[in-house]
Amino acid sequence: MRFPTLPKRTGWSILEVARRHGDFGLAGVVAIVGARAGRALIASARLVLFGVGATPIRAAAAEQMLAGQAGEPALFAGVGARAAADLDEPLTDVHATADYRRDLARVLTARALAEATTRARAA
Predict the structure, then answer these.
(1) Which range of residues forms the domain containing residue 116?
(2) How far apart are CA 25 and CA 122, in angstroms?
(3) CA–CA dist 98, 105 (Å, integer)
């Protein structure tokens, strides 16, 4: 695998919820946000949800909501809601229901975007 160096003014966040430290995550999100130089606007974003399906899921429609926007909590909440709504059938097993995983995806997406945006602006 290759992981390219992130450009300047790029922030990241990886958040997950697990029953115990070291367990597989019930749900999680990876967010990468690029900020525009000299402005508080989001230039680019990537969102991937994991633990909610058989494979990681790219939240492309939710990403599109971010481009050119100011990073605000209300925006992040809306993007989280969109990412969660776009999940076809989250996993249900003995550890968590589909509804619980969908709600985790919503909350974690909003939190990860806030953290990644803060890091992007500080970089």
Answers:
(1) 10-122
(2) 29
(3) 10
Question: The CATH number of the domain where 85 resides is what?
Answer: 3.30.390.50
* Residues in contact with 61: Cβ distance below 8 Å, sequence separation at least 6, in sequence order: 82, 83, 86
Which of 61, 67, 69, 63 has its CA nearest to residue 112? 63
Encoding tokens for residue 15? 């958040």
Average pLDDT over residues 35-48: 88
Average pLDDT over residues 47-75: 95
Q: Show the tokens assigned to 63.
A: 């990403």
Domain count, the chain: 1
- Two structure tokens written together for 42: 């989001």
DSSP-based three-state secondary structure for 41? strand
Q: If you average pLDDT over every residue of the chain, what do you get?
A: 94
